[in-house]
């Protein structure tokens, strides 16, 4: 199916089309307002999908990326198409294809900013494929956003199911304690763009060695962590810790083990989650909703879809199986 209208060939992926839309106004949060006022154009979001897809799809998968990330994993779209589903990726505001000169990469002072972008993407999916189920597939920070979004939209306008690929549900044992709440919140109010952490990403560098990655959009040098963004992240994580009530099927996928903090030469770089603590994900998974299913993949990395061949195949097969369990 080729999309009409203002879809144009994607500038990064042959055989894909993209559409750029103005992002909705952000929530009235002081940190966000000051950060946006500090410079940069009005934010946009970008939707990306294969130029051709299943003629009569069973449903639509809407993909949301994580931090220091954008959509490039065409094999994920292929796996979704092989399962008979259409695919639509979202590069959220200030990320990936949506980043504009003068903007602060990946900054959001309230997670509802990306939540608003996800609402637009899901609405586009429903307009393009009316009457079909929509599944949100989200990774890492995007997984946290998607979980909160699905909870907020559980009565109206949400998805028919959610897949969370290594969702960033907690910083426990993953990030230093000093970056957390008591000192962070006043700093975020006073100086939301203050850099509180900055380091190269060996994980991103390793993925760039194995995949065709635009390193201006997924940066091996990392993206600075700013106080306003981290405060927004922690606010979302505290909400998850109190328990959510997502009322559609949720599949939470993660690696079987973590290898956080061992640096560039960590033994788990290709066979473990070197970004997040999977034990924290496991502890919070049951509290997400009424129908939560857990998938643990041996030897998977942080983004399960970018793992080595065997765990990647395990994950994509399980994803297809999950999609097949959903009613038309």
From TrEMBL:
Name of this protein: Lysophospholipase
Gene3D superfamilies attached to this UniProt entry: alpha/beta hydrolase
SUPFAM superfamilies per record: alpha/beta-Hydrolases
Limits of the Serine aminopeptidase S33 domain: 56-259
């Amino acid at each position: 199916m080729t999309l009409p209208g203002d879809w144009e060939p994607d500038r990064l992926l042959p055989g894909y089309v993209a559409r750029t839309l103005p992002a909705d106004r952000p929530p009235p949060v002081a940190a966000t307002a000051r950060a946006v006022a500090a410079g940069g154009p009005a934010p946009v979001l970008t939707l990306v999908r294969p130029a051709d897809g299943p003629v009569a799809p069973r449903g639509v998968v809407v993909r949301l990326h994580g931090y220091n990330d954008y959509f490039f994993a065409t094999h994920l779209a292929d796996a979704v198409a092989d399962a008979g589903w259409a695919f639509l990726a979202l590069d959220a505001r200030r990320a990936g294809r949506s980043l504009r000169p003068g903007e602060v990469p990946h900054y959001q002072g309230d997670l509802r900013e990306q939540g608003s972008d996800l609402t637009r993407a899901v609405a586009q999916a429903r307009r393009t494929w009316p009457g079909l189920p929509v599944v949100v597939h989200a990774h890492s920070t995007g997984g946290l956003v998607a979980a909160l979004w699905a909870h907020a939209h559980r009565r109206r306008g949400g998805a028919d199911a959610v897949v969370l690929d290594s969702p960033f549900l907690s910083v426990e044992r993953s990030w230093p304690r000093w970056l957390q709440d008591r000192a962070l919140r006043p700093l975020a109010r006073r100086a939301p763009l203050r850099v509180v952490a900055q380091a190269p990403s060996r994980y991103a560098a390793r993925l760039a060695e194995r995949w065709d990655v635009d390193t201006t959009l997924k940066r091996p040098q990392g993206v600075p962590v700013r106080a306003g963004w981290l405060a927004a992240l922690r606010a979302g994580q505290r909400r998850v810790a109190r328990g959510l009530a997502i009322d559609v099927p949720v599949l939470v996928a993660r690696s079987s083990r973590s290898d956080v903090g061992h640096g560039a030469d960590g033994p788990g770089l290709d066979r473990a989650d070197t970004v997040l603590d999977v034990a924290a994900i496991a502890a919070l998974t049951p509290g997400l909703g009424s129908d939560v299913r857990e998938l643990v993949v041996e030897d998977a990395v942080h983004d399960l879809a970018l793992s080595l061949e065997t765990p990647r195949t395990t994950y994509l097969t399980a994803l297809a199986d999950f999609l097949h369990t959903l009613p038309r």
